[in-house]
Write a structure and sequence with these properties.
Layout (H helix, E strand, L loop, with lengths): L18 H9 L7 H22 L8 H26 L7 H4 L4 H26 L5 H34 L2 H19 L3 H12 L3
Helix pairs in contact: 1-2, 1-8, 2-3, 2-6, 2-8, 3-5, 3-7, 3-8, 5-6
Length: 209
């Protein structure tokens, strides 16, 4: 597993697979006691959309372009513009702590963020080319979709099962409360009112694909 020591790949956290529970928890994010509560619940929803993306790769692309657009809008906006920025607020500043660096290579994690953004950009371009009947773009779309799914699944496992657990132990409780307020302020000032509800709605819709 890239960017993580063999010692870190031990027990994996049990996934909560009830999507409705995840949606409900995110609607009540202000009741979370730790930043990792919110981030982990968001990852459960993201995994649902990854499952939908996998199913889309098995359908005729020209008949499902609108679903592709919605899925890519979800990843480009909620994941990249909201969650990634909040993660930087949360734990990137703490990577100077040797306990973090001994288990997780920050350069690899950051490179994976950039790699994921690249896949999303190329998939968006491929969808628009397909809308113009550009046949070769289909292979490009499917190749980047499979690469993105594999990348994000591994990335989520490293962060959710290891990095977040370490953060809960290392970051003082008062600092975690301050970060929770940062999350609320980021959503209010930079994301915009109703943005989370919009993308939770997209995620819920895509689970029926």
């Amino acid at each position: 597993m890239r960017g993580i020591s063999p010692l870190a790949v031990g027990s994996t956290r049990e996934k909560r697979t009830n999507a409705r529970d995840n949606f409900a928890r995110l609607r009540c994010a202000h009741k979370a006691t730790k930043p990792t509560d919110i981030l982990s619940d968001e990852y459960r929803v993201i995994e649902r959309v990854l499952d939908a993306l996998q199913r889309l790769t098995l359908l005729p692309v020209n008949q499902s372009l609108e679903q592709w657009r919605k899925a890519l809008d979800f990843f480009a906006t909620l994941l990249i513009s909201v969650i990634t920025l909040r993660k930087k607020k949360f734990y990137f500043r703490h990577w100077k702590n040797t306990a973090f660096r001994a288990r997780v290579d920050p350069s690899v994690m950051l490179a994976e963020h950039e790699e994921g953004r690249g896949h999303v950009r190329l998939m968006i371009a491929a969808v628009e080319n397909l809308a113009k009947s550009n046949g070769p773009a289909c292979a490009t779309l499917l190749d980047h979709a499979q690469a993105y799914i594999a990348l994000l699944q591994e990335h989520i496992q490293k962060e959710d099962n290891i990095l977040f657990r370490m953060a809960e132990q290392i970051i003082p409780e008062d600092e975690q409360k301050r970060i929770l307020k940062d999350f609320e302020q980021h959503e209010a000032e930079e994301t915009g009112a109703g943005a989370h509800e919009k993308y939770l709605g997209i995620a819920r819709e895509l689970t029926t694909v």
